[in-house]
Amino acid sequence: MTADPKGVLTGVHFLDGDHAACEGALAAGCRFVAGYPITPSTEVVERFAQRIPMVGGLFIQMEDELAASIAIQGAAWGGRKVMTVTSGPGLSLMMEHLGLAAITETPCVFIDVQRGGPSTGLPTLPAQADMMQVKWGSHGDYEIIALCPDSPQECFDLTIRAFNLAEQWRVPVFLMMDEVVGHMTERVVIPAAEDIEITDRRWTDKAPGTYRPFDVGPDGIPDMVKAGQGHRIHVTGLTHDERGWPAMNPRQQDKLVRRLTGKIRDNADVLTDIREENCEDADVIVVSYGITSRVATAAIQQARDQGLKVGHARLVVTWPFPATRIAQLASRCKAMVVPELNLGQMVHEVSRAVAGRVPVRLVDHAGGTVHDPQVILDRILEAAR
Amino acid sequence: MARTEIRIGGLGGQGVILSGIILGKAASIFDGKHATLIQAFGPEARGSACSAQVTIADDPVAYPYVRNPDVLVVMSPDAYKQFVPSLKPGGMLLYEEELVTPTDLPDGVKAYGIPATRIAEELGRRLVLNIVMVGFFAGVTGVVSSEAAEKALLASVPKGTESLNLGAFRRGYEHGRRLVGGD
Known about the structure:
The complex is a heterodimer of chains A (385) and B (183).
Chain A: E1 11-16, H1 17-28, E2 30-35, H2 42-55, E3 58-61, H3 65-77, E4 81-86, H4 88-93, H5 95-104, E5 108-116, E6 122-126, H6 131-136, E7 145-147, H7 152-169, E8 172-178, H8 179-183, E9 185-190, H9 250-265, H10 268-271, E10 274-277, E11 284-288, H11 291-305, E12 310-315, E13 317-319, H12 323-330, E14 335-339, H13 346-354, E15 360-363, H14 373-384
Parallel strand pairs in A: 2-3, 2-4, 4-5, 5-8, 7-8, 11-12, 11-14, 14-15
Antiparallel strand pairs in A: 1-9, 5-6, 7-13, 10-12
Chain B: E1 3-11, H1 16-30, E2 34-41, E3 49-57, E4 71-74, H2 77-83, E5 92-96, E6 110-114, H3 116-122, H4 129-141, H5 146-154, H6 162-179
Parallel strand pairs in B: 1-4, 4-5, 5-6
Antiparallel strand pairs in B: 1-3, 2-3
Helix pairs in contact in B: 1-4, 1-5, 3-4, 4-6, 5-6
């Protein structure tokens, strides 16, 4: 199906990433946001609160991030497409309810505009240090999907994709922005509504009485109903059976948790999105994501100007990690360089996928600004030797 | 592969960020180029140091920050003091000449002044000083076309203020053209 024109601000705009992400959510059909505004993500919900009365929907400013991250799940089971928006300190508070969304397979989108941490850290300055938290921050085995935009245009495009993936796979989907992308203003093209593909919820075609909320077909993903329309549903954070009723035994635990993780892990290759440039004959491949990819682009250009064969693999989807493709790339280059605005997070995933085939060099940064391209260039030059 | 890096500095409330938005919009929407705007401001709503970084280029902008601007536009003495050391050698300074007195200019810098506040007051609203500076920028540098800048301006200012703002833009533009010997 295509987007509802009511939410689509078709045209060519000059928007910052936060505002563009908000427009992406509206275009995707998001009609409920609960949030607890926090720098540098505030502009996303500020715009949503301003726009949603004209589109039809609801924004609630909650008492804290725990409340925000649970309110959206109630609204999702009431039939809405939903989102919450935060930054590091708020993200930490949302970890409990992230697990609930994972075990109840509630389609929902979390936008995390990353800032320097730990704790309150650097409220107005960038980092990319929440990458592992979204994957591992809630307890138990679970899977999420995470997307990393590097421009306001991608904040728009990837927010729509985040909603579509949440509906398709019934997992929490994260848009991993950062302060620079959030507050950077560039041209953003918003297409006509009929040119925006939207994934509808997996509504059941079963009648009340025959529907079981966690029954799955061959793809391992259950269909949903709207609460209150006559179907019997039970949604719990306890390990549950196909009816949704608590079934706390090793057999059901094994069945449920393997299905929850398997639906993403078994499809990691399908979900892979790497933008590759000049990787075919590269001696050194820079693996990057988010804002750092733009800084890396500047460094790579300088290296290529010096005659070095340097490729760029930009991860648009960081979770599930595209291990298969990274291993393939590693089999034909001499070294990989991984710049990130943290002291080493996704580099461990790269190393795991590369499995010793070639050296993997981290270019770390504690956050607060972006890398100096010269530092990335120096590491590329070292790696090329 | 032309690339121009611009820093606009002044005080919160002077319209520094809006100046950056108009330049970026003019270049990226109406001149068919690429533009990236980064803004920095203090926690105060008014009166603190405020600056906009705009990169305008023929190709997509990769590295988004402006470190050594080709053009520095300043509307306050503090902004001049803070940012002039970063101005690229041989770069260009555009300044509000009744608020800023350029001293210790880096080698080879071309400096152009305009009494933007006085012009804005003559037009009836001191508030449009930033728009006079935007016009001045377009007139002196030609980095954005006047047609594009006027379209971006009209798309960015509140309804009912269009003619005031257009007037401010044109006064700044003409002043700039005169200084560089254009028509």
